[in-house]
Amino acid sequence: MATQQMTQATSQSSDAVIEHAFGQATRWTRDYVFDILRDLGIHYIFGVPGTNEIPIIDGTSYPENEVRYIECLHENIAIGAAMGSARMTGKPGVLVVHVTPGIAHCIGNLFNAYRAHVPLVILCCQQQNELVTQEPLLASNLVDLARQYTKWAHEVRTPDEIPLVLQRAFKEAMAPPNGPVFVSIPWDFTMVAIEDEDRIKGVTRISPHFTGDDASIRQAASILSAAKNPVIVAGDAVGYADAWKELQELAELLGAPVVLQTFSSLANFPNDDYHWQGELPGSQAGVRGVFDDHDVAFLVGFGAQAQLAVYKYSDGPLFPPELKQVYLTNNTWDIAKNYYGEAAVFGDIKATLPILNGYVKPNPPVGAAARNEEMRALSVKRAADWDAYLLKAMEQEEIWSVVIAKALKEEIEERELVDNFVYVHEAVSDGAPFQYYLPFNTNGAKPVSYYCVSGGSLGWSMPASLGIKLENASSQGTGTKLVINAVGDGSSLFYPQTYWTAAHEQLPILYIITNNQEYHTLQLGLEQVVAAYGSAPGYGWKPKTDNPPYLRLERPKFDFVSLAKAFGGEHGEVVKTPAEVKAAVKRGIEHVLTHNTSFILDMRIAGSTPTAPSTSDTSSAQHAQQPAVNYVHQASIREKLHATGSGHIPSNVPSFF
């Protein structure tokens, strides 16, 4: 039973708290967030306003916090923009989301961030702690929603643990390998008054620059030196480590072609190096076509190892059993997660490769020089074939993507912006021309000059362009003066609200809609399904029609320029013929370099909705005639595709569902 003294003490304590909160408080628990952002030099919080979040958003109103709130019209735009900011700075992108629908709306890009190892801290304002058990409006178990696609997910138990939790969250997001972290905070916890001197000291930094075990490096070097025909696969960890130079040296020592992981998140190897062979194909047969002729594969930073739509055990593993595999990356999960590795090195790629190269250099594999000469010759032939393809494209009635890519390349180089541009890629079925022609090379570009995500959940690019443009420079030393976002017509329709934030924040971005008026990648995906199962015993499935209306974007047709104008994107034009492309690209780039508004180019890849599907032997001429970027393996890939009945599927187009 409470004594009179206890009651008086409680009353006095409560009065003291009220007096402090209303009369003296200048800091609240929400300000711990700003302590950390100040320490890390993070200047943006992204989000969609909700009542619960207002205490945190209000903190951006204080100039001394040096943080701007970037208002978005959908949470998946907010997280996508935070991802773009994080890619440029290498620091966690920060966003605040609203209870259950807020984190649910984020799931697509949260998945992308998790798969692409983008550092994020997601703050979700839960309903009042005293009310949650009664299941109020919008409340749920938020941690369970986020846990699958985060490095750590936690709901704060008491206001007193907020400093501990925030320090851990930011530390973990930045620790190798980077990734998203989720923190749920009951919103009433964010408004508790704290003393002025009660601050978070800082965030622990764990250096990513750790070298692998020397014995493991020597073992890897020994296997590579003994290889008869090695191949290198470069994954995203190479790009994040900014390790072009180190990997180029190894490729030269080994005489090895360099293939990138499918849906690379960055430019993981420079495309002006003759070892560069583009991305792995998006089919089981195509991947086998790459590896079948090699005895050793060096898998460096390679996490997205099975980016396929269709896989059949009966057709054999992606890596042939006789292929020796050597791994190097900073994430143990990605080392030999699918197949046995003869050697495995756990370490930072940029720090470890020079040591590995030093061990290989005195004893390079036999035939390296001859293989290098062969790849040089193939590179010259590849360039001639692509230029011939470009000339053919200029003769068409409709626009082939290669014309857009070449026009962008010329403008970037003529304006001397190779070290000051970022290309954001979601023209999913048209990746090869942009990856081949744009200057992702050693003349000034960096891995972060190219932005994509290995997750593949559509709607990543337009939101990312916001966060990228907000940052003036990247952590790798390049700038963001020119931000270009090429996006398919279907993908662009996921989050057209992006145009509003671009206009609201006066962010000049060049948006290029590759408009073929259909879900072209899904047409190609349908081809793969039919090729794999159309005549397979026990299946024999084929669609009712090979011209399904649900894969077309028609009745009514979209007016993308008008759509952008409705959200504040006031400038743009429709481009209908190849002859118009170069001048239109020039006008678009000139506009975004001299104004504070975006510019939309609706590029008609198809002049009207295709009258016949792009299936079987009727694949569109644009893709059917497109040269390979992988000239080292093109014959083997073609042979494997024909053997499985998939020979009509262009190897340059990734599978995408």
TrEMBL record:
GO molecular function list:
acetolactate synthase activity; flavin adenine dinucleotide binding; magnesium ion binding; thiamine pyrophosphate binding
> Would you tell me the Gene Ontology cellular component terms?
acetolactate synthase complex
- Where is the Thiamine pyrophosphate enzyme TPP-binding domain positioned along the sequence? 455-591
**Chain ranges of the Thiamine pyrophosphate enzyme N-terminal TPP-binding domain:** 29-134
Which Pfam families would you find in this protein's record? Answer: TPP_enzyme_C, TPP_enzyme_M, TPP_enzyme_N
Instruction: Work out whether the entry's keyword set contains DNA repair.
Output: no
Residue ranges of every copy of the Thiamine pyrophosphate enzyme central domain listed in the record: 217-354
Keyword Ligase part of the UniProt annotation: no
Q: Which InterPro entries match?
A: DHS-like_NAD/FAD-binding_dom, THDP-binding, Thiamin_PyroP_enz_cen_dom, Thiamin_PyroP_enz_TPP-bd_dom, TPP_enz, TPP_enzyme_TPP-bd
The GO biological-process annotations, alphabetized, read as: isoleucine biosynthetic process; L-valine biosynthetic process
Keywords, in A-Z order: Thiamine pyrophosphate
Give the family this protein belongs to, as stated in its UniProt record. Answer: Belongs to the TPP enzyme family.
The name this protein carries in UniProt is Thiamine pyrophosphate-binding protein
Protein source organism: Chitinophaga agri
